[in-house]
Amino acid sequence: MGVKNLWSLLTPVAEKMPLWELHGKAIGIDLSGWVCDSENFNQNTSQKNMYLRNLFFRTSNLLLIGAIPIFVLDGEAPLLKYGAIEKRINGNKAPIKTHVVRKRLNSFQKQCELLLNIMGVTCVYSPGEAEQLCAILNKNGIVNGIVTQDSDCFLYGARVVYRNFNASGNGSVDVYSMESIEKKLKIGRNKMIALSLLCGCDYDEKGVKGIGKDTAIKFLQALDDDVVLDRLRHWRSDTVLNSANMDIKSQTNEIKLELKIRNKAIENESFPSEDIIEEFLKVPNYPKVSAKWILPDINAFINFASTKLCWEREYAIDKFLPLLTRWHLLYDDKFQANILMSEIIKKRINKGIKCYEIKWNNYEITSIEPQTAVQRRYPNEVSIYEDMHTTSSKKIKKKVTIHDSNLFDVTNKLQSINISKKLGKSKKINEAKDNIKGPLDRFVMKEKIKDDSLTLSDFECDPVDLNISDIINGIIN
Fold first, then answer.
1. Are 28 and 162 contained in the same domain?
2. Is 49 within a domain?
3. Which one of 263, 289, 324, 456 is least enclosed by Cβ atoms within 10 Å?
C-alpha cells in the first residue's frame, strides 16, 4: 500500500530498534494497519475478534514501556482512491456504491475506539486517510514518530516512521528517518511524490507504462527536491527538451534518460496529475490533539472483555490491572483510581529496569512496577522499605565478613602447620629419654636437641589431637 516499491528503495537506510526505546515518546498510530493485520491472521485462530485482542496487548505494551500512543482513524476516503478501493474489495465485479466502501472498516474502528477509550488512550478521526493526519502530527512535532505500513505517509510529510511493529518478546520496530533518507539516498518528499506519479500509487496504480523504479530514481536523484515537481509540470512546454528530442543521439546520458521518461509520460494527457500532487501537499483542517493518558476503567474493561473477547473475569483483571496501577503511579495526583499500595514485597529486575513487586489493597494480584514510578507516588513507604533492607543487609554483610576473614586466617595458620605424622627426630628424643641415667646424660641430650634444631614439625602429631576450636578462638581473639 502506498507508492509502488518505495519500501524496498528505503530499506537500506532503515534501522531496527528495540521497542523500549519508545519510552517517553508520543506515537501516532494508523489504526487501520493493525486492524487489517489482525483480520488476516484471524483466519487461523479460534480467538474471537482477534483485532481487538491484538490492539489491547500492543497498546498495553506501549503504555507499560512509557510511550503515549495516539490512534488515528480513517475518515472519508479521498475520491481519488475510490477506484483502488473498489478494485481491492470488489475485484473485477461491477462497481460498488462509494458510501458503503468503508462500511466494514468503520464498524471495526468503532469497536477499537470503544476499547481504547476504556484504556484511557486518545483516538482522533482524520479528515481523510489516517496516514495523512499521522504525518501532519509528526511534521508539527505533536508526535515523535508514526506507526504505519503505508509508505504514503512520507508523501504527506512524515519525518519518522516505525514500520513492522513487533510486540512479542522484548519487541522491535524498523525506524525510517526522513533525515537519513534525504542524506543517504538523496530523495526528499517532492521526489517521492514524483516517484508516485511515475511508478504508481494508491491513487494511480498504473503510473507511467514502461517506467520502473530504478529508471525513475536514477533520473530523480540528479535533480533538486524543490524543483522536481515543476520539472514534470513543464515537460510538454520545455523548449530545450523539445529541441533535444529532435536529435536524441547527440545528447548527454542525463538528457537521454529524461527524454525517455518524458516521452512516455506525456502520452497521458493528464500527466502529471495535479489532483494527486494536491492530495499529498494540502494541509486539511484537523482537530486539536494532545498526547495524554487518562484514567483506565477496569470495570468497563471487565464487561467489554467478557462480551467481545470471551475472557473470564479473573483473566481480564490480571491483564488490565498493570495499566491501572501504572497510571496511578504516574498520573494519579488526586487518587482517582481507587487503588492504594498495600506493601512492597521485594525488589525485581524487569527487562533491565530496577523494579518493585507491589501488592495492592483492592486486589490479590501483584504487579511489577519501576522503582522510579513507585518512588514518585509513595516516597515515604519506599524510604522505609529501603532503610529496613539496607540495615538488614549491612548486618548480614558484617557477620559474613568477620567469619570469612577469620576462616581465611585460620586456613593460613593451619597450612603453616605440618600435621602429618613424622617419626624421625621425635623418635630419637624418646629413645634418648629412655637412656638417661644421670646428670651427664641429661646434658648430652640437651646439646643433641640444640644441634639438630628440632621444631614443632619434628614431633609426632596426630590431627585428631589438635584442638581446632582452641586454635580458631585464639586467632579470633
1. yes
2. yes
3. 456
Q: How many CA atoms lie within 13 A of 1 on its CB side?
A: 17
Q: What is the domain range of residue 174?
A: 6-185
Domain termination residue (choose one: 124, 157, 185) = 185
State whether 274 and 309 are in the same domain.
Answer: no
Pairing verdict, β 172-177 and 26-30? unpaired
Q: Determine the Cα–Cα distance for residues 331 and 343; give it in Å rounded to an integer.
A: 20
pLDDT in tens, 21-32: 999 999 999 999
358: buried, middle or exposed (CB in 10 Å: 19+, 13-18, 0-12)? buried
Domain assignment of residue 389, yes or no: yes
* Long-range contact pairs involving 81-88 (C-beta distance under 8 Å, separation at least 24): 81/129, 81/202, 81/203, 84/202, 84/203, 84/205, 87/205
pTM of the model: 0.78
Report the domain count for the chain. Answer: 3
Indicate if 33 and 92 belong to the same structural domain: yes
Here the CATH number for the domain that contains residue 376 is 2.40.50.40
Residues 328, 221 within the same domain: no
For residue 214, being part of any structural domain is answered with yes
Distance CA 120, CA 197 (A): 41
Instruction: Copy the grid coordinates of residue 120.
Output: 484511557
CB 171 within 8 A of CB 16: no
Percentage, residues of the chain above pLDDT 90 = 64
| Residue 72 sits in the same domain as residue 220 | no
Residue whose C-alpha cell reads 462500511 in the numeric block: 103
Domain end point (choices 376, 393, 410): 393
Assess contact for 23 and 172: CB atoms under 8 A. Answer: no
Q: CA–CA separation, 247 vs 245, rounded Å?
A: 5
